[in-house]
Design brief:
By secondary structure, this protein is an alpha/beta fold. The chain is built from seven helices and eight strands; from the N terminus they run αβββαβαβββααβαα. 49% of the residues lie in helices and 20% in strands. The strands form three sheets. Strands 5, 6, 7 and 8 form a four-stranded mixed β-sheet that branches.
Length: 196
């Protein structure tokens, strides 16, 4: 690992100098991920490449032009992330999400509307969207999540307002849903099925 870090440092210095292409000057940076075989040799070549890729991804997240070494701390974080993804997949399968409602008030303090906000109760810990939406997007289930949230919000809205109510409901729609040609029909189906 020490030798790899020294090599990485040399690479960073080598690419730091500007270079010419077509008469124009350019500069580049390099992100590097380093992984080493365990002392007992228990990891495979595939695992080593994957670990280096995880370290590389973290180097890019931390602002690029740096070297990150895959270590026990990263391994533990990766295992936590895998457990989080597994639990989230199960929650989506069961549609076991919660929706909270933030009131929207006028200048006189009267509630005019509510914004539906998804939350995930993960074993008694309430997680806000910033902690799990990127994972939902990564696993390709954002449209499914959006549909579940709308279904819950519409049902709650109907249960909580009377027919003469002028209160409205706001929901957040992911851009992937807006690109989905089936979204208007899905939305109409959910509205019709809710009794709104």
């Amino acid at each position: 690992v020490e030798h790899a870090a020294q090599l990485a440092s040399r690479v960073h210095r080598a690419v730091a100098d500007p270079f010419q292409v077509g008469g124009r000057e350019f500069r580049t940076t390099m992100s590097i991920g380093v992984a080493a075989f365990d002392a007992d040799g228990s990891n495979s070549g595939e695992e080593l490449i994957r670990a280096a890729d995880v370290a590389l991804g973290l180097a890019k997240q931390r602002g690029k032009n740096r070297t990150v070494v895959y270590d026990d701390r990263l391994r533990a974080a990766e295992l936590d992330s895998l457990a989080l993804e597994h639990d989230l997949q199960q929650t989506l399968d069961e549609q076991a999400l919660t929706v909270h409602y933030q009131p929207i008030v006028d200048r006189d303090g009267r509630v005019r509307s509510y914004e539906a906000l998804v939350r995930w109760d993960r074993g008694g810990e309430l997680l806000d969207p910033a902690q799990f939406l990127s994972i939902v997007s990564d696993i390709g289930r954002m449209a499914e999540l959006g549909e579940a949230v709308l279904r819950i919000a519409f049902a709650d809205f109907v249960a909580g307002t009377g027919a003469s109510s002028t209160t409205t409901l706001h929901g957040n729609i992911d851009e992937s849903q807006l690109r989905d040609q089936d979204f208007p029909a899905t939305r109409a189906r959910l509205i019709d099925g809710s009794g709104i």
